[in-house]
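Please describe the entry underneath.
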Amino acid sequence: MTDDILTTPDLIRFGWEEWVALPDLGLPALRAKVDTGARTSALHAFDIETFGSANAPRVRFTIHPIPGREDLVIACSAPIVDRRNVVSSNGESESRYVIGSTLRVGGDDWPIEITLTNRDRMNSRMLLGREALKDHITIVATDRFCQPELSYDVYSSLEVRRSAPKRALRVAVLSREDNYSTRRLVDEGEERGHTVEVIDTTRCYMAINAMAPEVHYDGKRLPRYDAVIPRIGATVTSYGTAVIRQFETIGTFCVNGSEGITASRDKLHAHQLMAQHRIGMPNTAFASSPKDTDSLMRLVGTAPMIVKLLESTQGKGVVLAETKKAAQSVIDAFRGLRANFLVQDFVKEAAGEDVRCLVVGGKVVAAMKRTGADGDFRSNLHQGGTAKVVRITREERDIAIRAARAFKLNLAGVDLLRSETGPKVLEVNSSPGFEGIEEASKKNIAGMLYDHIEERVRPAPVRKRKLLG
């Protein structure tokens, strides 16, 4: 009679331990212990945190899917189905979050509910309770792995990264302003199912120690974010980059790192960095002593020339000196204010126009030509300039990508001047605005940034070595 049951075509035979997959969570291979004495299934999880709205709460957690391999960490997130008190086999009660997921065994898939708990000491990262076992499953308590065997080797495959499901992320936007760019980042992220929180950079404070570096905000430790999008204002660059360094220390993916933002904000440093990477730019000179004024001007060329404060943004602190005498007067005035500045060749043929190339993840995703207001050599939109979409050349595309790469920026606005000798990089902006470029190009720039973030926070394949099981 038993043999007849086991040969029934629709019957699935399980041993007391089986290989399973949870594709919704990006877990292609797990060893699960089958326990009909337990009602609810359980999955190994740690760093469990809730996020999202009260109406649609979510939980994020991490897992070491391979026992003994703490170098492999998979981050997961899922909607919360319930919260239950679960009594373990030793009689201890624990309140656990309950999530739903697809269970895949062999060629069969079906939905199950899973509780989250730390099973770090267990060889089986998952326990399959009786609620997860379909009616046509029979348990053979003396056998193991009756279903097709899987391998932990899949975690060292690039295919794992490519096939990882898009999960809900917890994202922080570091911004002090409620402007178009910040609102777009929030709206686009939430539309994709992510939780996006706007954090005022200056209200962050940090616990700096070797064991557990933390970022605090309004009296509480900030949670672990999947990604941080810096929108650091020029007036708080120093403190803002310190906060980003703290997130980098924790291991959070920051769209733009502290090193690149710092370099882009210091115009002297920025031009030295571009020179180091052989990136074309207008002739530029810098000096500290007033005795060097004439020599400084000769290094740049003849008037007209640009005198620019090192910390200038949005076209402020940038002066066009049309004659040598005017340039000397401006330089003397800046020195009188003890301001740091540089002198730069004025590219006449640009005629008050520049090209803004928006680089995301090492690709130019949009470009616009900016034209200054009547009588103004500056093309910044904040100074009344106008913008329209423009087709850029391969040379302009290449130089924009090289400039963003030199500053190690995943998001950059690279401003180019079209000169007779080819494109010249005027500036690399580490917090480019979205409004002008989205309006001119009709492209979803915020969406392209989230595409890059979602790609970067997927689990990376681990180096292959002898695996257990």
Notes: Residues 1-9 have pLDDT under 50 and may be disordered. Residues 237-250 form the longest helix (14 residues). The domain at 170-263 is CATH 3.40.50.20 (Rossmann fold). The longest strand covers residues 74-87.
